[in-house]
Amino acid sequence: MCVFCVVGSERVEEGQVRSFMGHPKCRESFGFKEGKSYLIMGRSADLLRTDGRLQYILGEQTWIEYWPTSEEGQSSEFEDQYLGIQDLTQKLIYFGCLT
């Protein structure tokens, strides 16, 4: 779920597809599961513009965090993680990215 993300002047809305690139030997270690949501944050230096679209490079300084659903957020396993990401989301909506 991408509620609100801004990369440079590119606004990303929920449901839009973005291209991510990672080193072939590292891809499995990311542990992405289809149908799940992730918070992904990285350096602006890890962006490539190709044919007017941004491609995101997943590198050693990329932060990847599983984004639990609201239902999962009710469980003790994911409650802190869910609340933390919700808090971050609200701060980004109201204050933007301060980098």
Automatic annotation (TrEMBL):
<dbReference type="InterPro" id="IPR008993">
    <property type="entry name" value="TIMP-like_OB-fold"/>
</dbReference>
<dbReference type="InterPro" id="IPR001134">
    <property type="entry name" value="Netrin_domain"/>
</dbReference>
<dbReference type="GO" id="GO:0005576">
    <property type="term" value="C:extracellular region"/>
</dbReference>
<dbReference type="InterPro" id="IPR018933">
    <property type="entry name" value="Netrin_module_non-TIMP"/>
</dbReference>
<dbReference type="Pfam" id="PF01759">
    <property type="entry name" value="NTR"/>
</dbReference>
<protein>
    <submittedName>
        <fullName>Complement C3-like</fullName>
    </submittedName>
</protein>
<keyword id="KW-0964">Secreted</keyword>
<feature type="domain" description="NTR">
    <location>
        <begin position="1"/>
        <end position="97"/>
    </location>
</feature>
<keyword id="KW-1015">Disulfide bond</keyword>
